[in-house]
Each structure stands twice: as C-alpha cells, then as structure tokens.
Specification:
five-stranded mixed beta sheet
Length: about 210
C-alpha cells in the first residue's frame, strides 16, 4: 500500500529554496536611481585630472632665476675674453711679423724686460730701440765657431738672431748698449727683410711700451 502526495516534485539538482534578493525585473524607481548615480559619477572630476587655470600659465620663478644666472655668466665670460685679448691681437701686425714682446702699448713692462720679435720664416732683421740700432749676431755663426763638443756658447750682449726660428732677441744688461729701460715710454722698430733678397728689400714695424 502506498501514499500518493499531491503537487509537483522538486526539480532535480535544486534544493527547492529560491533566493528572495534577486529582482529579475527592476522597478521604474530602481532604474531612475541607477541613472542618477551614473550622472553624478560623470559630473564629478577625477582627482588625477590636472586642474585647469582657465587662462595664462603661471611663471616658474625658480626657472626664471636659473635662466637669469646663466645669462649673466655668459655675459661675464664674453667680457673676460674681450679684456684678455693680448696686445698682439689688438694691434694689426704685418704679415711678416708674427709676434712682439713687450706687447704693443704695454703699460707695466719691467726695466729688464726682453725685446723679442718673431718674424715670418725666411726673414731676418735688426732692432732699433729709442732711435739706436743695436748690433746683431747670428746664432748659427756662434755655433759654427765651437771647437769642442758640449762647449757652451758665449752670447754677446747684443741682439741675437736665431735663423731656425726667425727670431730677434735683445736683453738689457750692464755690458749691453742699453743697461736697463728707464721708466717711461720706449719705442722699438724692427727693420726686417727676406734673407734671400737682402736689406735692400727691407720693411719696418714700430711699436711702443711703457716701463713703470
């Protein structure tokens, strides 16, 4: 004998309990609330978004100061280069004279300063100091006069010409025609000419310096 139970049996694999929290069909009120939330999220600015100034950009004071310091430094460097120009660069030397010492218009030359002229290759010459032409000796002739190896060259107190470098050098001394340069302005003229052509083709360059 069996008992017949009325009603549909539970579906296989289902515990027969239905959650009451699922709302398969949202009510109109719920839809309106969801739309309002989305609209609020869209109108709220993100914290990561850069703020807008709505106009002119603000000047970075630190960057402005650094730029001013760099510009000032460039000006000082340029000024130093202009001031540091030597006398040879400030005076137009002829193509046949490469450099002279003391520099033209020197204001603080010493009493025992050397007079030095670097001529173009292949040139020789003489020095005229304060109107006096100084004797000149060729260094190669002094070297040729040596008899013993290692013997020291005795240089007379005159203008010395070095043919290998095409230079003229005079050093004031007690034995020289000019013992020392007195304070004041001194004038030097270098008369020079091509060795192969002789003094008949000579030209000259004059400058002055001041001894303190």
């Amino acid at each position: 004998m069996f008992t017949l139970r009325l009603g549909s049996p539970p579906t296989a694999g289902h515990d027969g309990v239905v959650a009451d929290t699922i709302d398969p069909i949202p009510s109109p009120e719920s839809a309106e609330q969801a739309t309002a939330v989305v609209a609020d999220d869209a109108s709220t600015p993100s914290n990561d978004r850069a703020p807008t100034t709505g106009g002119r950009r603000r000047i970075d004071r630190g960057l402005l100061i650094v730029s001013a310091v760099i510009a000032l430094g460039l000006v000082l460097v340029a000024r130093g280069l202009l001031i540091g120009v030597t006398g040879d660069d400030r005076v137009d030397l002829p193509a046949t004279v490469e450099s002279v010492v003391p520099v033209p218009d020197a204001e603080q030359a010493l009493a025992q300063t050397n007079v030095f002229v670097d001529l173009a290759p292949g040139y020789t010459g003489v020095l005229i100091v304060d109107g006096v032409e100084l004797d000149t000796v060729d260094l190669s002739s002094l070297q040729d006069s040596l008899t013993d190896p290692g013997e020291q060259i005795s240089v007379p107190p005159v203008t010395v010409f070095e043919p290998g470098n095409s230079t003229l050098t005079f050093t004031p001394s007690a034995a020289a025609e000019i013992e020392r340069f007195e304070p004041g302005i001194h004038r030097v003229t270098v008369v020079h000419w091509p060795i192969a052509e002789g003094r008949e083709r000579a030209r000259s360059f004059t400058w002055q310096f001041n001894v303190v």
